[in-house]
Each structure stands twice: as structure tokens, then as C-alpha cells.
Design goal:
alpha+beta; PH-domain like; 2 domains; three-stranded antiparallel sheet; 4 helices; 6 strands; 58% helix; elongated
């Protein structure tokens, strides 16, 4: 199983900080609009607790996600393990692949990372926070493998007729 590069960690922290800012702004808006004018003490206390949790999540979450994220690609399947509190594992047989795309968001471009989104009949699976070069290489090699599988299936169908 392969690990992510250090650039991915910077991308994760930046995304977590931006999300934390929006979450804190939502809590501040609720406080200004409703809790402070109506002097809801329990609401103010809950807001403080939520702000502390947001700060802790912003600091801790990227670290654990980075160190738990692993992926592997071989001739038969793609294996992705990721998570923060709950670790999720996705194993996708290459013969089930229908479509694949590479995506780079604004934060991804800053840190020179990309996502490879693989579509199967069962849904999408995403390889996240890959170095741009590695993402392009994976997309090209998976594209070749998909084409090879299609050719093999056509040959099998022609033989059956």
C-alpha cells in the first residue's frame, strides 16, 4: 500500500482550516442573530463547545487522515483505505471500471495534488491527494487497462457468436 506525499498534508490542513472558518462563521451568525439577543445561556455554552471541537478537528483530523490514507493499484483491483474516526476500505475490481477522470480543485492546484475519480456500475471511488504526476500516470495506466479489458470482452463476445 502506498502513502501520500507531504504536499497532501498541506492540502488537507488548508481545506480543514477553510471548512473550520465557514463552520465558525455559521456558529457566530446563530449567536448574533438568535442566541445573544434572546440571552440563551445554554446556546452560548453549546456554541463555545462547538467552536472548541471545530478547532480540535481542524488541528487533528488532517494528521490522522493523512497517516491512515493508503492505496494500492495492481492488475486486478484498486484498494483504497481512508478515514479519520472510521476507516473505510474500498476495493474495486478493474474489470468493473467504466469511466475515469482526473480533477484538480483550487486548493489542489496550489499544492500540486489531484484526484482520480473512477466510476463503476456501483458508483464512484476517488483516489485523493495524489501528486499531479502520479495522478496523471495512474489515469493513463488505468485508461490503458480499461481499453484492454474492453478489447478482451469484445473478443470473448465474438467467439461466443
Amino acid at each position: 500500500m502506498e502513502k501520500l506525499s507531504k504536499r497532501a498534508l498541506g492540502c488537507m490542513y488548508t481545506a480543514a482550516i477553510i471548512a473550520g472558518i465557514f463552520e465558525a462563521a455559521a456558529i457566530a451568525a446563530v449567536n448574533v442573530i438568535w442566541l445573544i439577543p434572546h440571552d440563551v445561556q445554554i446556546g452560548k455554552a453549546v456554541s463555545v463547545v462547538l467552536l472548541i471541537l471545530i478547532v480540535l478537528n481542524t488541528i487533528i483530523s488532517p494528521y490522522f487522515r493523512f497517516h491512515r490514507y493508503r492505496y494500492s493499484i495492481n492488475e486486478e483491483f484498486i484498494d483504497i483505505r481512508e478515514g479519520y474516526i472510521f476507516v473505510e476500505r474500498n476495493i474495486v475490481p478493474l474489470e468493473r471500471l467504466h469511466k475515469m477522470q482526473t480533477l484538480r480543485g483550487p486548493i489542489d492546484r496550489i499544492f500540486k495534488v489531484a484526484k482520480v475519480i473512477v466510476t463503476t456500475a456501483g458508483g464512484d471511488v476517488t483516489l485523493r491527494f495524489l501528486d499531479e504526476e502520479k495522478a496523471d500516470f495512474i489515469a493513463e495506466s488505468l485508461g490503458r487497462r480499461i481499453n484492454q479489458i474492453v478489447v478482451e470482452q469484445r473478443e470473448e463476445n465474438a467467439e461466443e457468436r
